[in-house]
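Morning F.,

Quick status update on the modeling queue. The single chain you submitted on Monday has been processed. Sequence for confirmation:
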Amino acid sequence: MTVISSHQDTQALTLTIVAEYDAAPDRVWRVWADPRKLERWWGPPTWPATFEQHDFTVGGSSSYFMTGPDGTKAHGWWRITAIDAPKRLEFDDGFADENGERSPDMPVIHCAVTFEPSGTGTRMTTVSSFASIEELEKLIEMGMEEGMKLAEGQIDAILAED
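Structure tokens below.
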């Protein structure tokens, strides 16, 4: 598995996942930029994603859903807030209803992803920030940390095909 660490910081209200890949940063960047690659790893293996929209520009938005083993669909959205290819990506990530409308009852997570050269590969650090300890605890209880680790663990197979 390529995920080398995960850490919850209840003071800073963050969840940090660090992974390393045997590919240059621009190749790792493409698994975020290309919606067909992104949907092959965003979400745990038993909850594959389908991106219906992916406007990978600052101010752009994405909409997607993940399909569970029983056919249940969990919808989500992104709003891209910063791009510095292939070094840094920031976006807000939230839940949506079956029509793609943002769910006001669920937290919005701000994600900052950095891509740094590491030996012959890339170190990718994903920092998810929460507005409150209750939101952090709620999403950890829903399986976010384990789900992200499983999701990012799928990237190696995609990079091996390029």
